[in-house]
Structures are given as structure tokens and as C-alpha cells.
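Subject line: Sequence and fold of a protein, written as C-alpha cells
Area: Proteins and the way their chains fold up in space.
Start of record: The labelled sequence and C-alpha cell lines come straight after this line.
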Amino acid sequence: MSTVHKGLTVTVTLDEKNIPYVNGLLSEYRKDLKIYQETYRKSLSTTFFISWLTLPEQQYAGKERLPARILLLSSYVGSKAAHLRELVAFLGPQLRQVFSQSPEFPTGEIDEQELIRFLQRKSIPNTFYSGFKFITTREADREAALKAAVLDYLQAAPEINSDSSPSEVKEKIERYVENHPKAPLGVAGDSVFLSK
């Protein structure tokens, strides 16, 4: 049994050389979230989930070059317009700082309304998030801790790079979780889940 919430995915291209800088920003934002969880909860009251990531340049099916990207993903209740206003009101400086690394971001100073329009233009329609009702809050917290541990591992793992295939990355993550008994393993039945 599950419930479906509205989802938002905003994606823009990124020069590959800027990925370490953007990842550093995102790491700092994660640290802030840990310190100011209650402020985030109050200020982003319609938001269930929010995550940022970068993807390196890749070759798709050995033919097509896919550019490096920044992705912002969230799930929420209410209207998309209200969700975008809430994100911009609370995370405006962070949104500007990260997305300004993309050549797709407007040049010069932009106000809140222009930032909302930018997010709207760069969002991908028809995304969704399915939250399972049988997962307890404790399990969701353990899973969030596991996700943070895996993200920290990925940023520090020299053996994972843009030449690594998705299956290689998956195997290395699974090995990391198996070999680190102190990693906050999120388990539902017989399966390990990695996303909230």
C-alpha cells in the first residue's frame, strides 16, 4: 500500500569542471540540514523530501554524449506554484548559488519571481514520489542516515568516476554498506532501501 505525492525535478547542464565545487556546496547544505532540521521542517512545511545531486558527463549507449547535470528533486503537497514559492523563500540563496554554476542560469541579479520562473522552466513534468505507509518514522530516519553515509562515501570514493558504469557503482555501494556494519542500514523486509 502506498501514497503518491507530487514531485518536482529541476535539471540543468553543468560544465564538468564545476562538479567538485557544486558537490562542496551540496555537502555544506547537508551539514546545515543536520544542524537546523527543525528550521527546515517549519520553513518547508509542504515539502516531504528534497535532494540535490550532480551527474557527470556520460556516454549513453556508447553513442550519445550526455552533459554533466545538476538535479534538484523534491516531493510535496499542494500546488507546484506554492511549492516553488516555498523553496525560493527559504532556499533562495542556495538555489542561486548552485544553479548559477550552469550556463542555463540567467546572468546578473535575479529576484524571487525570476528565480521561480527559472525553476518552472527547468522542471521536468510528470515526476512523482511514492511514500510507503508501512515504513515507520524510525525506519525513514535510518534510511536518511544511510543515504547520507552513502553520499559521503561516493564523494570520497576515488575508484568511482565518470567511467564507472551504473552497475559498477551499484555494486560498490552495496559492498560499502555490507562492509561497514556501523552504517545506518535501512531495512524493510528482506530488501535494503536507499531513497526516502
